[in-house]
Specification:
The complex is a heterodimer of chains A (264) and B (263).
Chain A lengths: L5 H22 L32 H37 L1 H16 L2 H12 L3 H27 L3 H8 L4 H37 L11 H8 L7 H27 L2
Helix pairs in contact in A: 1-2, 1-9, 2-3, 2-5, 2-7, 2-9, 3-5, 4-5, 5-7, 6-7, 7-8, 7-9, 8-9
Chain B lengths: L2 E10 L5 E11 L4 E5 L6 H8 L8 E9 L2 E2 L5 H7 L4 E4 L13 H12 L4 H14 L5 H4 L9 H13 L5 E5 L7 H18 L2 E6 L2 H7 L2 E6 L2 E7 H6 L4 H8 L10
Parallel strand pairs in B: 3-8, 3-9, 6-7, 7-8
Antiparallel strand pairs in B: 1-2, 1-4, 4-5, 9-10
Helix pairs in contact in B: 3-4, 3-6, 4-6, 6-7
Chain lengths: 264, 263
C-alpha cells in the first residue's frame, strides 16, 4: 500500500490558495487599503467587509492582502540574498578548505552568535527602516546557515571520484565548483531554502511587529498584529486575520517542503 | 623518453606523516604499455597521482623529478598543469560509475576536455563525441550521449571514461585498476579496447594493477613495487618466466592457477 503524502497534498492546497490570493492582492484589492472611514471603526465582518474593519475604519481584508504581498516579497528577496551570498561563501570555503575555511567560518560563527533580533535592530538603526534595509538586515542574518550547509556539501562532494576526474581533465576550479559540484548539492539546498523562507516570513513579521520593519502607511502583517493588540477583545477579527495570514504562509510552505522531502 | 621519473619521493605532512614512496625511478617511451604491479599500499597509485600532481600540495611533499614531454612536472604552475591534464594525460579510475557526475548526461562529460582544450565549434565537438562513443564500441551513440551514468552498466561507464580520457588524443593514459570493479568478461573487453587504442593512436598506457595476469595480457614491460620501492623491472615475459627477486617470485606464485581448485 502506498501511503498518501498528506503533507504534500495540504501543502500544495494551502500554498496555491495563498499564492492566488496574494497574486490578486498585487493588482486588486476590494477597497483602498489606506482609505479610512471613521463610521466603520472596528466594525465586525460583514458582506461588504468580509474580515471587518480596523481602528481607522480601513478594510482588513484589503490590508491583509497588501501586507501579505509585502511580507512575501521581503521574504523572497531575503532568502535569495542569503542563498546567493551563502552559496558563494560556502562554495569557496568548502572547496579550498585550509586557512580560508577557518577564518571565514569563524566570522560566520561571530555573525551567528548575535541574537537575530538584536542584529537586525543594529543594522536597521544604522541604515534606517524601510523594505530594502529589512531585506539587507535579514539577508545578512541568513548567510551563515546557507554558507554552513553549502560548505559541508562541497567538502563532501569535492572528494568524490567524479570531481577528481574533472580535475584530471584539466577543468578549472570555478567550473568544478559551479558546474560539477553545485548541481549535486541542490537537493540539500532546496530544503534549506524552504525552511529559510519560513524563517524569513516570521522574522519579517517580528521586525514589523517591533516597528522597525515596513513603515506606515504601508500595510504589514507584523504591524497589524502589533496594532490589533489593543483591540484583542473588542475586535478579535483584526488579530485573527493578520495572524491567520502569517500562519497560512508559513504552514503552507512548511508542509510543501516537508512533502517534497518525502518524495523518493 | 616520453615520461621520466627520477628519484621520486612522496612524503606526507599530516598527523601520521611519513614517507610513502622512497626514491622511485623509471621511464616510459611514447606508445609503450607499461604495467605497475604490487600489493595494496605499495605506492602504485600515489606514484601515478604524483605524475599528474593531484596530491594535495599542502599535505604531500614531492621530491625528485618528473619530466613529461619536455615539461618539468614538479615545477609547473597550476594553470599550466590544467593544460596538460586531459590534453596530454588521460586518467581512468577504478570505479567507473563513481567517476562520472551523476547529474550530467554522459555526452557533455565526454565533451568536456574538448570544450576546455580545443577551439572546436559545437558541431565539430558533437561529431568528435559521437565518433569517440563509436570508437569505444558503445551502442547507439545518438541515444547514449543523452543517457545518465545510472542508466549505463559498469562496463559501459568505463567505456565512457575511456572515451572521455582519450578524446583529446593524449600521449599518456594512466589507468588505475580500471577493471577491478568489473566482471571478468567485461575486463577482457576493456583490456582489448585499451590495447586497440594503444595500437591505433599510439597512446602510451601506464597500467596500474594488483592483478598480474591482466598486466601480462596487456603490457610489454612491467614494474614491480613493494612498500614504496621498485623491486624489479623488465620485459613482461621475462619477469613472469624468470623473476629475479624473491618478492616477485612470491607474487607470481600467488596467482591462482587452473591446476589448483578452490571449491
Amino acid at each position: 500500500m502506498k501511503k498518501r503524502n498528506y503533507n504534500l497534498i495540504f501543502g500544495i492546497i494551502i500554498t496555491t490558495f495563498v499564492v492566488i490570493l496574494l497574486t490578486i492582492g498585487i493588482f486588486w484589492t476590494p477597497y483602498d487599503p489606506d482609505m479610512m472611514n471613521v463610521k466603520l471603526r472596528l466594525t465586525g465582518p460583514s458582506p461588504e467587509h468580509i474580515l471587518g474593519c480596523d481602528n481607522f475604519g480601513r478594510d482588513i481584508f484589503s490590508r491583509v492582502l497588501k501586507g501579505g504581498v509585502s511580507t512575501l516579497w521581503i521574504s523572497v528577496f531575503t532568502v535569495l540574498f542569503g542563498l546567493v551570498c551563502g552559496v558563494i561563501v560556502g562554495a569557496f570555503t568548502g572547496y579550498y578548505g585550509g586557512v580560508l575555511d577557518e577564518v571565514v567560518m569563524r566570522l560566520n560563527d561571530v555573525l551567528n552568535s548575535f541574537p537575530s533580533i538584536l542584529f537586525s535592530l543594529v543594522i536597521v538603526s544604522l541604515l534606517g527602516p524601510g523594505k530594502k534595509n529589512v531585506v539587507i538586515a535579514l539577508g545578512l542574518l541568513f548567510i551563515p546557515s546557507f554558507a554552513r550547509i553549502t560548505r559541508s556539501e562541497f567538502s563532501r562532494i569535492k572528494n568524490m571520484d567524479y570531481v577528481k576526474c574533472a580535475k584530471l581533465e584539466g577543468v578549472p576550479p570555478l567550473r568544478i565548483m559551479f558546474v560539477h559540484i553545485l548541481p549535486n548539492a541542490v537537493n540539500t539546498l532546496l530544503s534549506t531554502t524552504a525552511i529559510g523562507f519560513n524563517n524569513a516570513v516570521l522574522a519579517e513579521a517580528s521586525l514589523s511587529f517591533l516597528g522597525i520593519g515596513v513603515q506606515p502607511p504601508d500595510p504589514s502583517l507584523g504591524r497589524m498584529l502589533a496594532e490589533s493588540q489593543t483591540y484583542l477583545f473588542s475586535a478579535p477579527w483584526y488579530t485573527l486575520s493578520a495572524g491567520g495570514m502569517i500562519i497560512l504562509l508559513v504552514l503552507g510552505f512548511g508542509l510543501l517542503s516537508d512533502g517534497l522531502g518525502d518524495i523518493e | 623518453m616520453m615520461l621520466e621519473v627520477k628519484d621520486l619521493v612522496i612524503r606526507f605532512h599530516d598527523r601520521i606523516g611519513g614517507e610513502a614512496v622512497h626514491g622511485v625511478s623509471f621511464s616510459m617511451a611514447a606508445g609503450e604499455r607499461l604495467g605497475i604491479v604490487g600489493e595494496s599500499g605499495a605506492g602504485k597509485t600515489l606514484t601515478a597521482l604524483a605524475i599528474t600532481r593531484l596530491l594535495r600540495e599542502d599535505n604531500a611533499e614531492l621530491l625528485g623529478s618528473i619530466r613529461f614531454m619536455g615539461h618539468d612536472m614538479l615545477n609547473t604552475s597550476g594553470k599550466e598543469m590544467r593544460k596538460i591534464r586531459g590534453k596530454e594525460i588521460g586518467f581512468i579510475f577504478q570505479d567507473p560509475v563513481a567517476s562520472l557526475n551523476p547529474l550530467m548526461p554522459v555526452g557533455p562529460q565526454i565533451e568536456e576536455p574538448l570544450l576546455l582544450h580545443t577551439d572546436l565549434s559545437k558541431a565539430e565537438r558533437e561529431e568528435r563525441v559521437l565518433q569517440a562513443i563509436r570508437d569505444v564500441d558503445l551502442p547507439e551513440p545518438e541515444v547514449t550521449i543523452r543517457k545518465y551514468p545510472h542508466q549505463l552498466s559498469g562496463g559501459q561507464c568505463q567505456r565512457v571514461m575511456i572515451a572521455s580520457a582519450l578524446i583529446c588524443h593524449p600521449s599518456l593514459l594512466i589507468a588505475d585498476e580500471p577493471t577491478t570493479a568489473l566482471d571478468v568478461t567485461v575486463q577482457t573487453q576493456i583490456l582489448k579496447l585499451l590495447k586497440r587504442k594503444n595500437e591505433e593512436e599510439n597512446v602510451g598506457i601506464l597500467y596500474i594493477s594488483h592483478d598480474l595476469s591482466l598486466v601480462r595480457r596487456l603490457c610489454t614491460r612491467v614494474i614491480v613495487m613493494y612498500n614504496g620501492n621498485i623491486v624489479e623491472t623488465g620485459d613482461v615475459e621475462q619477469i613472469f618466466t624468470h623473476p629475479k627477486e624473491e618478492y616477485t617470485q612470491r607474487l607470481i606464485a600467488a596467482i591462482p592457477t587452473r591446476s589448483k581448485r578452490y571449491v
